[in-house]
Design a protein that fits this description.
The strands form 2 sheets. The chain has a two-stranded antiparallel sheet with strand order 1-4. It has a two-stranded antiparallel ribbon with strand order 2-3. By secondary structure, it is mainly α. The protein has one domain. Helices cover about 50% and strands about 5% of the residues. The protein contains 8 helices and 4 strands, in the order ααββββαααααα. InterPro entries: DNA_bind_recomb_sf, DNA_bind_recombinase_dom, SSR_resolvase. It comes from Klebsiella oxytoca.
Amino acid sequence: LIADKLNRNGTPAENGTLWTRGKIHTILTNEKYIGNNVYNRTSSKLKTKTVKNPKEEWIRCNKAYKKVVSIKKFLKAQEIIQARSKNMTNEDLLEYLRLKLKEKGKLSGVIIDEDDFGPSSSIYKSRFGGLIRAYELIEYKPEHDYTYLEINNQLRFFYSMLIETFKN
């Protein structure tokens, strides 16, 4: 595992902490680590669910940052991550969450991504719209209240509408 190798080499993660599979997963699934800044992946209108925008509507700034991971390795990682859950049905994914909850007593993206042989937390976003929705389907209530995320999305949208109104 990448995290194990980095830890054995004494390479610290952010804030001097140890590397975990979850931290590696974040690097290998976020385009900012290959230098890109991508906006408008999702959108929402007031009092509506956030929706994924088609890739052609994404606003992309390539080479916005210094890349940490090569594009070739990043794309290979995407293939591997998708392959890990490709043959799993939605019910298989939900059953995996139930078993992981029973094992750990709680769920999070990090807990899911720490399992070397389980699906990636990112598959729950593409299949169910996010982990929170998958949690709802298995009737799991996280320790933290994440309703603020939807409220934040609505406020951002409302704010941008106000700005546009005053510009005109």
